[in-house]
Inverse folding.
């Protein structure tokens, strides 16, 4: 198997699966005719796949038979009741999980002997600006692992994390877009308050956020140093920074992660 010939099937085609498919299509790395999907509501699935030029499968068995790589994108609570019956068909395939909370040892329990890896992507993969965490524990061959990496790299940044860190990696990657979207909305509201049209405000703030992230990734500069670079003594930015510190912005972000991780 390689990127130019592999067929990929999505078992479940919700927001995360469709974001991955959209990213592959946008990157031009996977043609639509090699993408398959199966979901509970077949009529709705047909509409979503037809819009992308993908194949819709009526059953999970049909999907697995058509695919070389099967992406597990169903709700986590459905996995244990779904995969064991598919295990014989999954032999010789690569299983890539995007289901929250399911690590390598969990898949070994329900589909022993099947080659699998657990991943945690986030929705910006749809525009090839995502974050994809790969669990270091997996049962793939070296060739299969290289293939999975090659598939995900065009979708953004790929990192490897130990099993004990997979949950928090998924939380950081998966929840940060919501937190940043709230920040974009709030800063745009402030811009609108002072007269900037809302569409322009969203464009300005979103570009500032995207540019800052890209600058940090490109240079590796410590975020604190990036903040210091625009905080002139007695200037406007440092006054805003001081107000955000008084409001507890940093601790609020940390508490949000604590709330999700149950700590």
């Amino acid at each position: 198997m390689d990127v130019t010939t592999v067929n990929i099937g999505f078992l479940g085609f919700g927001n995360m699966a469709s974001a991955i498919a959209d990213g592959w299509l946008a990157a031009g790395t996977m043609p639509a005719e090699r993408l398959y999907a199966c979901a509970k509501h077949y009529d709705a699935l047909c509409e979503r796949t037809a819009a992308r030029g993908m194949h819709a499968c009526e059953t999970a068995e049909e999907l697995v038979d058509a695919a070389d790589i099967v992406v597990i994108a169903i709700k986590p609570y459905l996995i244990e009741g779904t995969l064991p019956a598919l295990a014989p068909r999954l032999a010789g395939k690569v299983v890539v999980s995007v289901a929250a909370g399911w690590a390598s040892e969990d898949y070994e329990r329900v589909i022993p002997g099947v080659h699998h890896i657990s991943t945690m992507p986030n929705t910006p993969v749809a525009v090839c600006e995502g974050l994809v965490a790969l669990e270091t524990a997996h049962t793939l061959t070296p060739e299969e692992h290289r293939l999975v990496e090659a598939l995900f790299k065009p979708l953004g940044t790929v990192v490897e994390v130990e099993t004990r860190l997979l949950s928090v990696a998924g939380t950081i990657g998966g929840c940060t877009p919501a937190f940043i979207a709230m920040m974009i909305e709030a800063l745009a509201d402030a811009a609108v308050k002072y007269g900037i049209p809302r569409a322009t405000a969203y464009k300005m703030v979103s570009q500032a956020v995207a540019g800052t992230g890209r600058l940090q990734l490109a240079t590796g500069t410590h975020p604190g140093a990036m903040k210091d670079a625009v905080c002139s003594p007695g200037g406007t930015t440092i006054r805003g920074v001081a107000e955000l510190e008084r409001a507890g912005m940093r601790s609020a972000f940390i508490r949000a992660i604590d709330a999700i991780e149950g700590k």
Summary: The longest strand covers residues 115-121.
